[in-house]
Amino acid sequence: MKKMGGRLADRSPRKQRSVYPTNKNIKMIVLVCAKLKDIYTQGRNFVWIKPDRCPRCGSTRVWGHGYVRAYFDDFHECLFLRRFRCPDCTCVIRMKPKGYFNRFHARVDTIRSCLYHRILHGRWCPNIEKSRLRHWFSALKRKTMAFFGLCCDLLRAFDRLIEMGEIPVSRGI
Q1: Distance separating alpha carbons of residues 46 and 40, to the nearest angstrom
Q2: pLDDT per residue as tens, the chain (173 positions)
Q3: What b/e sequence results for 113-136 when a residue is b if at least 16 CB atoms lie within 10 Å of its CB, and e otherwise?
Q4: What span, in angstroms and rounded, lies between the C-alpha atoms of 32 and 35?
Q5: Cα distance between residue 24 and residue 58, in whole Å
Q6: Is 5 helix (H, G, I), strand (E, B) or coil?
Q7: The model's pTM
């Protein structure tokens, strides 16, 4: 070790970076068919199906990695979603019920029906906060303009964006 500026500098070789891609298109969230009510009532005793392979490297050595708290509409308490980990590429895989966008508490069909109500009647749905509805609506308009240009049919744009693998009501483009 060599002394540099009052500190000892470590001359050991640096750890090599992972050879696995860090591409965001590889989904580390696995969507599963599960009822939120069952997950809520059973808590950590809910039986999650272990993925047979790692989505990043394809390894079959995947093991449990605890739980993560998640919040969903209609539940006042957090729900525990299962996580798994691949020891070969250190990828953490999170299980999530189908029908939800990443980082959204509301179901996809709820978001779409609220947007449909707004477009059809010109009023917001009464059962969801207006700030959330305005966020979804403005994000949809912005994404529609970015992907399709001047398109007047926002609901068709919503469906097309989902087909393209995009979240139609997120702020990121």
Answers
A1: 9
A2: 555 555 555 555 554 445 545 554 455 888 889 899 999 999 999 999 999 989 888 889 999 999 999 999 888 899 999 999 999 988 999 998 999 888 888 999 999 999 999 999 999 988 889 999 999 999 999 999 999 887 668 999 999 999 998 999 988 76
A3: ebbebbeeeeebbeebeeebbeeb
A4: 9
A5: 16
A6: coil
A7: 0.71
Domain boundaries, the chain: 29-97, 108-163
The DSSP secondary-structure symbol of 44 reads G
CA distance 56 to 31: 16
Q: What is the number of residues in the chain?
A: 173
d(CA 34, CA 170): 24
Q: Which secondary structure element, helix H or strand E, spans residue 144, and what is its range?
A: helix 130-148
Q: Which stretch of DSSP H or E encloses residue 8?
A: strand 7-9
Task: Copy the structure tokens of residue 166.
Answer: 């995009």
Helices (DSSP H) in 14-74: which residue ranges?
A: 36-42
- Asked whether the beta carbons of 51 and 68 are under 8 A apart, the reply is no
Measured distance CA(50)–CA(30) in Å, rounded: 10
